[in-house]
Amino acid sequence: MGQSFEAELSLTGLECADSVQLYTDGIPNPATCREPERDNKLIFRHGDRQCVVNFPDGYCLDVPADWQVDFSLSPVRIRYTGSYCVLNVTREKIIYDSREFFFQECFDRHMKDPGFWKANRITETRPCHTETIGEYTAEFQHLRLDAMPEGALSHYTYVKLYNDSPYFYFFLFKSSGEEDIEPVIRSFRPIPVEGTAVYSKKFEVKIPSHWTKETRACYDRLCSRTDTPWGIYCADLLHKGMDETMPRLEAEMEDRFELVSQYVHYSHDFTLELARKVHDSGRLFQMSYQYTTSNNTHLEGYTPVLDIYRAECDEVLRNYARQIKAYGEPMLFRLNNEMNTDWTSYCGLVNMLDPDIFIETWVRLYRIFEEEGVDNCIWIFNPSGDSFPPCRWADFINYMPPSEYVQMMGVTAYCPGHGGFDSYEKLYAKIEDDYRPFFMDWPWIISEFGCGPDDGTKIEEQARWIRECFDCMAQRRFPNIKAAIWFSANDYNPDGSVHNGYQLNPDIPQVMAAFREGFQKIHHT
User: Fold this and answer.
1) Is 115 helix (H, G, I), strand (E, B) or coil?
2) What digits encode the pLDDT tens for the residues 366-377?
């Protein structure tokens, strides 16, 4: 060996190694010893295999020598990539009382549902089975995503490796054929957890060269704003929102919404008439396009995402691109927001537990827009403030497309008022902490947010929350945030009662006064 790591070699089960490489904080390190508190990985190479020693996650694993190892998102996953396969490994923690319930909620509810398989052309290629690997139970599941293009990574193997500890390991292996991942799983050996994993992935803002000069100017103006312009989504926007609802609110608030937001679902037309009305009124239009045919309900049924991934829906996407091209004015384009959840048609839990599918279908639409000459869209990547399921595999950063396909970061955190009123500062400080390793040089936009009065009785608390929000904006507490859009609509329970009441009412004086005072602060500070 070129370096001396005899003690660590004993962890691997190898008697000898041809070479060894130390990685510290994701970067190759020529040192011959490690600092235990750091993020240390070792790769021992011997013949046709390499043994990866992952100290922060507490394991050794043998993989083929020609697989590339990616440590750049070490706090949430390690990725191993071969010529025709990808293996993601995450160390997870059960946070519910029951392991079975945790597995059902965070992994199995769709992937083990034959009805879901049938609706989305998924085949179980082998029955689920378990085997014992040392002190662990390994549960295997094998699925195939049918009707995929030739050479696609359509064969999936899922493995949960667990014992009596609350910590367990999740393996997602996908390949172009029925490759056998079981020898890799059987090579797993636990070691003492040591050090702290850190990120080494970088995302750099890249301005598209194909933008119109008007789009670039719009982007630059928005990025340079220091007074946080506000926008609104109205539940009745397509009907009387622009003509009645917004003017009434603006009259009570004594200010003007500078952005207007709308939602369109997959296969629906772009709201061209509304977009032109927004532009003609001197406002900026934000469009949220979502790959859903069920308004993100009935997630146990059909999802269009997998057909988009199969490249079967390109003409629908092209038609939508042509409509946006026909609009021609600069606009904000937010695709598949809140993907890091369990309540959208395009989340990982619904789509093979594989955030790569989200990324691939994002890139597919972006490239179709380019091919159709769309040069007026500023693309926003907008996760939810909290990732769910509460697992590393579902963390928001696993969904981030390559930075050349994104120009702004969306941030979203709501305060419904149930169980208390976490402040605006607390909610967005948490997002700032999450974004800090990656996006502190990016412009951010609150593409939707709101505060509700709990069951409708806590109006004073809602008004105080709004005042504190404006105070933070006036003080430039989060300078990356360049604009904020209030979601003025309610979420409803199945019986029709209001669950989350974010819809603004111009007849509630406490809330209107909070907005009126707030707008004065941010525009005159």
Assistant:
1) helix
2) 999 999 999 999
